[in-house]
Write a structure and sequence with these properties.
With 492 residues, the protein is of the alpha+beta class. The chain is 38% helix and 16% strand.
Amino acid sequence: MSCVMGWDEWAKHDAVGLAQRVRQGDISPAELARQAAAGVALVNPALSAVVELFDDVVADPLRDGMNPAGPFAGVPYLMKDLGPTLQGRLQEMGSLLMKGHRPAADSFLTGRLRQAGLNVIGRTTTPEFGVCSSAENPAVYVTRNPWDLAYTTCGSSAGTAAIVAAGVLPLSHATDGGGSIRIPAGVNGNIGLKASRGVFSIAPAASDLTGLVSTQGCHSRTVRDTAAFVDHCRGAAPGEFMPYWSPAEPYSQLIQRDPGRLRIALSHEWGHYRAVPHFVAELERVGRLLEGLGHHVDWALPEVDLPAAFAAQTTCYISNFAQTITNLLKPLGLARPPADLVEPINIKIWEEGLQTSYAERAQMQTVFNTTSRGFGQFFESWDIILTPITAKPTPLVGTTEYLTLSNNPSVYDWFDNLWQNFAYTPLSNLCGIPGISLPMATQANGLPLGIQAQARQANDGLLLQLAAQIERALDGQWNQGKRPAVHVSPQS
């Protein structure tokens, strides 16, 4: 397959840069799509990050209604195989149960992506129904980390994380119900923003009222790409159950200015969860960098009942998941998930979730409220709180304790073990506040370590503004300018 540019040049372009080249007449959307497909062919045998390429859309970028006059001008884009649907295209959700499933209509966000000029050319891997920390069922696929193939990408936006890090695409779709944008961004060296509630619609099949903790987003390698994505893909579908909002100024403009002096808290003590010493040292190093940029930095933590918050979050996941699976079983004529088609922990979650009482859901909502109020009060005194993206090093491929392939007999013990590692991200979903993972640190095993920044509700722009300030201070050299071992560029 012919390529319009060398791989090193390709990997240096972000989505905004590629769109500029298209508008200048240097390249066409079809040439971009062919090069992206060639990139998938180069790295996917090692990574197993892309489930399918849409050959007809690669050949004809206008095939599915992409708007070539949109701000992204035909930049190729991959959709995580979970969340927004594509009419008539397979969406199998990482599950043997859903093999051959083809949604009948586009989601609202799909239309926003295409109107913005993003050319959806295929789909990326996810763990079964997005539940666990890694896309790692050998009967489906095993997605590997491009920095070291012995390690997982984490998840659930597994394939997107690997394919962006490997230089195939500058921008790709991700979702986040408890860290699924930020965690894989953090351990693959990408930028991953989980937006506030009221930014990205999950219509028409669900709303923020029913989804409660889940949101949409992307992975990128530059702050301006993430800012442009939010600017052009946000917005409400008709009939939303909550107000959707827009900032006074587009983020693409806002990030061109540094923020004022910020009050930045550091924490790695999250309830009874603690980061390993190396991660704490990396967090402290980043804190010193931010002090050098003129910000006030100190240790602080919201005054909330964190164990109660994690228990409520677990109740939310279990009860929501049971209904989701029940709704998927009905069209298949099934009364329960078949043991040969659904992973063991997911069956246990479904069974447990069916037993959730109204009183338990009401208690969950009470804790959601008190936790959100506690974080809100914290952000009266602090602008941002920084944590490592995870508490422990990235697991090796085959570490089943975090997978829904686990034989753990207790769903609650399985979730508690999950929180031991992935403690720092879920509560922003509970509270509806924004969080971003920035590739600013390194694990002892050589993999990237994201540093997460969280802010008050609707302060997404402040997170992006700080991220852009850091990006300028680093001369754009996230990950210390290093590239993964598996990468489209032969110079990596």
